[in-house]
Design a protein that fits this description.
Helix content is 51%, strand content 6%. It is mostly helical.
């Protein structure tokens, strides 16, 4: 067979087609939203503008998910090198810089999500000082949420709110990269020290002996004594919320990358092995891993997309080649299922990249809809499968 006879594999062809379809949707959304922001989830398959909140108008930069929109545009740039995407992604820096400077809706650990994708990325790539300073300011604000003596980063809400005091959640593992970056950028060791301790506390307490994870865990804010694990968005306190388990795969892996702590890598593998052992036939998780085929419950495509990215990252970290290959193959199966059964290719009425996600089933929010984070991680998974030398923003 000559070189000209070689054809892409069916998976490569499917991924390439999925990328093209996703980029068409990104293009349309850039035209529709400009430098404003879609809602957290679609309604009937379409994102409306973000509703007014925190004293801000429709489409404003509020809430925890806004950075997934410029993050998605950065991925489009990585896939194409098209300067249109670079300009569109950079157009969001001002909004995030203003948000942190004016203290708009900052009472959350999700500052890591918000500023890693929106400002750390341009700071790394172009040395943009405005973006760098905004990201460092966000890291400083995140440091105010570190609760001693527990050494954890409080998740949500006013730090004086007794209902939230001492609580963290598994999503926070994806927010510590902002602190590690801030430490590298400023030379101040406080950031990394706080992130290390937080990740160790989650490894010790939010990861359960059976390989499942709590969504949320409480410590006594005065003594630092660990108290109890609960759920907010899972089926039950003792079940395993699928998106949380996916955050565990990706988040523990990222924290291992920054720290080299083998216990964090082992935690990531534990999360991955349990997640993979509880997938349905099409490899896309139900919204809680307690559910199986025939349950009638909804899938969470966003959990699948996060897991696909996390498994690929994890495969690059484990030393055992066979285990690494297993994680890569599992990520490829999940991604192919998302491409074939969950993407909006061929659905011109939808403006999400993938559908059939779940935000918060117990509260009836964003059930069987597209989600901004699901779109981001789906396109990240496609980018990982397409660009061999891709540089992670995390």
């Amino acid at each position: 067979m000559t070189a000209t006879d070689v054809r892409p594999s069916p998976d490569a062809e499917a991924v390439a087609a999925a990328v093209s379809a996703a980029l068409r949707t990104v293009d349309a959304n850039i035209d529709a939203f400009g430098d404003r922001y879609p809602a957290d989830t679609t309604t009937g398959g379409r994102y409306p503008f973000r509703p007014p909140s925190a004293g801000q108008p429709r489409g404003a930069n509020v809430g925890w998910t806004t950075s997934f929109w410029p993050g998605t545009i950065w991925l489009a740039y990585d896939l194409t090198g098209d300067e249109r995407y670079l300009r569109a992604a950079m157009s969001h820096v001002d909004s995030f810089a203003i948000r942190v400077a004016r203290g708009i809706d900052l009472d959350t650990h999700d500052l890591g999500f918000l500023y890693t994708l929106s400002c750390v990325t341009p700071a790394r790539r172009s040395g943009d000082r405005w973006a760098r300073d905004a990201a460092v300011a966000a890291a400083d604000h995140l440091m105010t949420r570190v609760l001693e003596p527990a050494g954890i980063i409080q998740a949500w809400g006013d730090l004086s709110d007794p209902r939230q005091r001492g609580r963290t959640i598994i999503d926070s593992l994806m927010n510590t990269p902002l602190l590690f970056w801030a430490g590298e950028t400023t030379g101040d060791g406080r950031y990394a020290a706080a992130a290390r301790r937080h990740a160790a506390q989650l490894r010790e307490h939010i990861l359960r002996p059976d390989g499942t994870t709590f969504h949320t865990f409480y410590w006594d804010p005065e003594t630092g004594v660990p108290l109890r694990g609960e759920t907010e968005q899972g089926h039950a306190d003792d079940s395993c919320w699928a998106r949380g388990q996916a955050w565990g795969i990706y988040g523990f892996t990222l924290n291992h990358r920054y720290t080299g702590d083998p216990a964090l890598l082992a935690a990531a593998q534990t999360c991955a092995d349990h997640f993979l052992a509880h997938l349905p036939a099409d490899h896309v998780a139900y919204w809680d891993l307690v559910f199986t085929d025939g349950s009638g419950e909804e899938r969470d495509s966003s959990a699948a997309a996060i897991a696909a990215c996390g498994l690929t990252e994890l495969a690059g970290a484990v030393a055992d080649p066979a285990r690494a290959d297993g994680y890569r193959e599992a990520a490829a199966r999940i991604l192919r299922s998302l491409v074939d059964g969950y993407s909006t290719a061929g659905h011109p009425a939808a403006n999400a990249l993938i559908l059939h996600g779940v935000y918060d089933k117990p509260k009836g929010i964003g059930v069987d809809e597209g989600t901004l984070w699901g779109d981001y991680f789906y396109l990240e998974a496609l980018t990982r499968a397409t660009v061999s030398d891709w540089t992670s923003p995390w």
